[in-house]
Design brief:
extended
Length: 148
């Protein structure tokens, strides 16, 4: 067995919703889909009130108007960020660090994904981009029809 297999089996034993899948008791009341049950279904008892466990989620309620955008910044760390009024909670180096990590990821994937596959993915992305969004489709369907 590889270390990844062992880790996934251990992780599964701790958090899988056995009650839902196998109709037997869960080892813990806080299972994998607890965050979804909390946010989507409103089950406040689905997550650990002590804020302990192996899963975490950020939840932002935003209103984004047509043609607008919002940027959310998130850094996972066990150390609180330095609060510098001039630099904000992420510090002056946040943007450059994020860009460096993006570049590292791009270089890694360029080394493991064949160029022919990248070209195919680019073609697929162009096709998807050319499709109308669900909002545009709904707007066209809702538009009043002209009398003939």
């Amino acid at each position: 067995m590889t270390p990844n297999t062992v880790a996934s089996k251990k992780r599964g034993r701790r958090t899988t919703n056995a009650e839902r899948l196998f109709h037997c008791s869960n080892r813990t009341p806080y299972v994998k889909e607890g965050i979804g049950r909390y946010l989507v279904d409103g089950h406040r008892d689905a997550v650990n009130p002590a804020n302990e466990g192996t899963k975490a989620s950020a939840h932002y309620a935003l209103t984004v108007g047509a043609g607008e955008s919002r940027t959310l910044r998130l850094r996972l760390s066990d150390v609180a960020p330095a609060e510098d009024a001039r630099e904000g909670p992420f510090g002056a180096g946040f943007d450059s660090l994020l860009e460096a990590r993006r570049q590292e990821a791009d270089e890694f994937y360029a080394s493991v994904i064949p160029a022919s596959q990248v070209r195919e993915l680019d073609k697929l992305a162009a096709i998807v981009e050319a499709q109308p969004s669900p909002t545009e489709v709904a707007r066209v369907k809702a538009a009043p029809r002209k009398a003939q």
